[in-house]
Design brief:
Helix content: 25-40%
Shape: globular
Number of helices: 6
Largest sheet: 7 strands, mixed
Order of helices and strands: EHEHEEHEEHEHH
């Protein structure tokens, strides 16, 4: 891209990378942010998702400023939080956490909040919070046991990955499907364009 800033994706998530590639964007660098993701006392799911997205973008922008190969880059960061009421569900790492999440989500609705932050080289920050409502069918013990056995839940907000096997649990979704996967595309593209990043530059050759 002639004279365009470089794009840094502040994430190691293959899902976020694949979503960006879907809309013709290939980050110049993948640089996961190393931040503390512990919720603050009384913090809501919505506030946490936006705070972490901003914090990731800020942390990676600071690294980029001090790295010759990445100076002048635009940084894109995101964070996804699953909430039931004001309760924040963990990014499940342990089987017990995943069982707790699935038991809580079974047969009821929940909300998925994805915060997106785009940091410009001058430090200007643009953010957007996307809320999606999801409802699961009532899960049998077999459903849960088999899903736990798959291991697909590990590291996922709320203990599930909607783009995988758990897609068969979803009976209703209102909002942005890609946001639940990890990156709301329309909102991300809007933020990048507002930051001066040429989102459509590769579109003329996308179908070649």
């Amino acid at each position: 891209m002639t004279n365009a800033p470089q794009l840094i994706l502040a994430s190691a998530s293959p899902r976020r990378l694949a979503l960006l590639q879907q809309v013709g964007l290939e980050p110049d660098h993948l640089l996961p942010a190393d931040i503390d993701e512990t919720p603050k006392k009384f913090e809501t799911p919505r506030a946490l998702a936006l705070r972490l997205a901003r914090a990731k973008a800020e942390a990676v922008l600071e690294v980029a400023k001090n790295t010759d190969a990445m100076k002048g880059s635009v940084v894109l960061a995101a964070d996804t939080v699953v909430g039931v009421g004001r309760r924040i569900l963990p990014k499940a790492e342990l089987t017990d956490q995943a069982v707790m999440c699935l038991s809580l989500l079974s047969g009821r609705g929940h909300r998925v909040f994805t915060g997106v932050a785009v940091a410009e080289p001058n430090g200007k920050m643009r953010t957007k919070l996307v809320e999606t409502r999801v409802r699961f069918k009532r899960l049998s013990r077999q459903d849960m046991d088999d899903y736990i056995s798959s291991g697909e839940w590990r590291g996922k907000a709320g203990g599930y990955a909607i783009q995988g096997l758990a897609g068969s649990f979803v009976v209703k979704l209102v909002g942005s499907y890609p946001a639940v996967v990890g990156l709301p595309l329309a909102e991300t593209v809007n933020l990048l364009q507002a930051a001066g990043y040429p989102v459509h530059e590769n579109w003329t050759t996308a179908g070649a």
